[in-house]
Amino acid sequence: MRIRRPRISLSAFVWLVLAAAYFLIPLVATLLFSIRSIKTNACCSAAAYGFVFHNGDFWHTLRVSGVLALETIVISLLLFVPTVYWVHLKVPRLRPLIGFLALIPFVVPPIVMVVGLLKVYKNAPSWFYDRPNGILAAAYVILAFPYMFFALDAGFRAIDVHTLTEASQSLGANWLTTLARVILPNIRAAALAGSFLALAIVMGEFTIANLAQFHTFPIFLQNVNETQPYGAAALTLISFGITWGAMLSLLFIGRSRGRQPQIAGAR
Q1: pTM value?
Q2: Is the pLDDT confidence value at 75 over 90?
């Protein structure tokens, strides 16, 4: 018996080609521009990439933004995972309120938020106010709040929180053990999704870092763009590759998670 394979309609194929062209043409144009020679303006040369990789500021700002992204992810998970878990378990009526609060970072412009944060924390200790790991990390946790909350909220809604908690406690586990060894493995994909969204935010945020006068990766990208157009194109592709590398790692981790046995319960 021959199995018929589903055919792709012509309209779907056209839209797929248009979407791919919309996505790939700017990348190809940026790549072609980045491999032009800095001196002769002719193709092809890797001088722009050599300029980026041999620039000390590139590695310094990449490290600063990477550490900021890691701090933002860790602080966000420590704050929001227990909060969303408790809301789903004990006070589900607060979900709409927290969802409304999560929309505030979308409404308040970053320039307004950073001015307010600088005023609020101006009397804070110097280790917090004068270092990017302090005030910038606090600002980025606020920016990541909507993405982290809605990702975790979707993850918690996909599992039976009450049944898993009752089963864990009936076996003698305390709240911390239940959260760490029962709940968290079941929402790992949601936590990873929120984490990589936070990573993308930190790696691309410019306004807050610029007004707070900290030299992060987006600031370095802007400075290169003002002086080295070919280097800026190469740096754009490199940053794009870093972000998509993180997204691909999420894809592979999600697939491995799908092959593991899951705990389920009836409502």
Answers
A1: 0.80
A2: yes
